[in-house]
# Entry
Amino acid sequence: MRYTEIKLLIFPFLLFLIFFGADSPRTRWYTLLNQQEHHALETLIWASGAWLSMRLIRAFVWQRRPKQLSGAAPPMLLQHIVNLLILAFAAACIAQSVFDQPLTGFWATSGVVGIVLGIALRGIIADFFSGIALELDPPFKIGDFIEVRMGGEPVIGRVTEVNWRATQIVPRDSTNTVYVPNSLMGSIAVNNLYHPFGRTRFELLLWFDPGISHDRVVRVLMSAAMSTDCIVQDPPPDVVAARYNASGVEYVVRYWLTPEVSPTGARNRLMAAITDFARRGDLQVAFPRREIVFEPKPEAVRDPLEVKIRFLERNRFFRSWQPEELKAIATHLHTRKCPPGTRILTFGEPGNSMFVVAEGLLEVSLPSGPERQSLVVAKLVGGDFFGEMAMLTGDPRSASVTSVTETVLYEIRRQHIQDLVQRRPEIAEAMSHVAAERRLQNQNAELALDSETPSEEHLNLRMLILQKIHSLFG
Ligand code: CMP
# Structure
């Protein structure tokens, strides 16, 4: 027996013993007591016995129950009903055995009183019986997240208690409590959100201009959803185009969350990722239109070369390049569209081109450990580039790169950038800076070291890479 259980039982038990002992024929004063005093003592025995029984049930049934029922709290309603029955039983026993009262009259009177009370308190009684029905056939457990609609906005929250009158729901991300009368709970549709999979699906609606291709929008939205870490990745999120409306095409991002994750927080992070990825991909969310457009949208007619130049201009890496340099590179950009799971570069192979990610999500991985299993060291998204190390230094590929979502890439071959790198040393310097950082990151990942790296090591690596670039490009 635990200390808390002893504390709970000690007083009712002592009281019961005292009253029981006091009314025993073996005591000296037994014969001295008059009849009223005997009745009082017997009543107290019954009352303390009832109290002790309620405490025993609380200690050994209710308080131990959570451990058997995987964390479900003991239902308050059931506790109240059991206590009430014990009290009624004790009252009936007192009436009959102490005061010799026949109970038939009592039941008859209580029937009439019951009818009157029943009419007066019909709401409360309906709540009470609906509460019992909820206990017997529960559509949810204490602690479950449910959605109930009571006319206006739906209430979504965690069930904290079902008692006599109401089911208590604490809405998500809120500190207040909603009390839904049990009778209402029994008559409305209840959506148990995380049952039976332990996760639930949420949706985010966005609108894009019909001139922007479906594939581009899906790629951007999928990359954003798959790189938001609080979203469940198995099953993966998906994106569907739902309908046309005044704002454009309505896209729905559908994603799963587990109960510990706040839907508002997850939505906020997903929105932030979408805003970032859409900006990188030059996609704008559509707003309700008010003017009639007679000309085709620029997006639809834009010259592919123009699209590539604009893409390079937006990229931080090409920001310092002259317009004619951008144009020269853009004319040689080779567009590649890769389905999810395509191995674009393989560790250790030779390579003479680099890639800029137009849209999509990719993973950079290294073979590591004795079994050479794949260790993901980085993720690449729209606007990032990769493959620069082998192209610029002539070394074999330092990592493998695989597409996670459908991906659009622009490929730049060594012969097309050669002149430019020779003429503009700062380009090689900027690339060597990124390359050195990546190499260090990979070394650290492999050695499972802290990502803080001494700057001297960074400098040495950078010098080594620069030397290699100069010897290859002259
Ligand atoms: P390269 O060695 O030519 O081929 C593999 C490419 O993966 C490499 O060039 C880099 O562009 C890229 N890469 C390697 N490590 C990382 C990293 N830690 N972060 C981002 N990209 C990387």
Observations:
- Residues 29 and 84 are 35 Å apart (CA to CA).
- The chain is about 50% helix and 20% strand.
- The longest helix spans residues 35-62.
